[in-house]
Amino acid sequence: MRTSLHRALRAWRPNFASPTLQILLGLMAPSLMVGIDHHVFAVALPTVRAYFQLDPDMAAWASMIYTLPFMTLMPLYGRLGDGLGKRRLLLAGMVIFLAGSLIVFVAPSLAWFMAGRVIQGIGSAGFVPLGIAIVAQWFAPNERGKLLGAWNSVIPLSGLVFPFFGGLLVDGLGWRAIYPPIIAIGLAALWVVRRNIPTRGQRPVDPVFLRTFDWVGVLLLSGAMTTLLFYASSRPITGVEGLQDWRLLGLSLFCFAALFAWERRQAQPYIDLALVRSRAFLAAAFSAGLRMFLMSSISFVLPLYLTDIHRLSASAVGVALALQAGMLFVISQAGGQLADRWGSRRPVLISMMGLILIMAALAVAPANLPVWLIYSLAGAHGLIIGLSLAPLHRAAMQGVADQEAGAAAGLYSMIRFAGQILGVAVAGVALQRGLAQAAMPVAAYQWVFWLYAGVAAVAVVIGWGVARD
């Protein structure tokens, strides 16, 4: 009996020498660092808004100023990762992120705060595309759904505990108190990545590669995405109300047109136009973008809603975000396993249709709705939105050649997180207008939730194009 028990314990114990587990831990480390920053900053946002006396659309920029470089530089990291080494760029990004975190912590003014958030976004932009590309490089297609689900579960896992304790820090010491733990965890994550991500196959830096790289494509794509975001939330930028400054929209469309014209003539283009012509890739990428659009709405709007309508403290807001993240963690791995078994399309459609119901329920919720019901809806949101995470990653990389994995993952990740940043921008603009026009503040929030229910319906239509396999 003792021998049987010993064998059972040995079978249960994870093999930390396994290359699969080592790579997975190496990819989880930077995700944990960024996940903690994401969840705790969401809890601190109402306090940051009050500290700097920000309007709702400017409060949205406190979040978006991080996501803008995070989004626009994803293809750059993915493309450079194919030529310079994915591990090398992952480590460089972590150092940049930690430098930005330190600047935010000591920021004496709003300008310094925003600058630190930008540097954080520059550093973390490579974590997602490089992680997806590393999984695609090292593992067979029939293993990727499970591994991507396990890897992506670390961000919602960080949301199980840290929002509540972050809220306690904010309530007791102010918003700056969240950054020393983030920096300490980031330094530990840096060591984990150095130890666990393999160096085999990493080539020395090639000066010719850097000199001949398509930097014009980088500038055109960054300009197109930046001006599109400025158009969505233009009042803090140009003084014109959001979604009304047509000069910015025209400039964005011009940059997109110039980008496509330029890339068609390049032997090694920054954006592989063959991917843009792939219906399956675009369906997965735009479905992922709409998913992030809807996920970011809760991360931005829910803390403000609970603060303004229900008068909750930062720690109580953290409970709602922890419930959302906890349910996302519970379902993330199951989503990847279901995709390996059913194909990607079915979990995606179930997730998007569920989001319509969640957003509609929040839209009809009265101001006196018991807080425990809001908590329940936050948990249900995390459960249903987590179902489609790994299936969409899997669908985007289906059929992509190994040598193009970085470029494909970068473009996919950029479109995905463009949805996130546009979701926050549109929420800030819609909330600003709603608060200015509605007789009661709750009506402004209800309008925003109805808007997102419509976006979820569009996501269902696009989700039909996701690959079945």
Spell the H/E element sequence.
Answer: HHHHHHHHHHHHHHHHHHHHHH
Overall CATH class of the largest domain:
Mainly Alpha
The rough form would be described as globular
Helix content: over 70%
For the record, the count of structural domains works out to 2
Task: Say what the CATH topology of the largest domain is.
Answer: Growth Hormone, Chain: A
Q: Could you characterize the architecture of this molecule?
A:
The protein is mostly helical. The chain is 81% helix and 0% strand. The chain has 22 helices and no strands. Helix 2 (19-52) packs antiparallel against helix 3 (56-72). The chain is globular and about 60 Å long. The model is unreliable at 1-16 (pLDDT under 50).
Summarize the structure.
This protein has 469 residues and is mostly helical. It contains 22 helices and no strands.
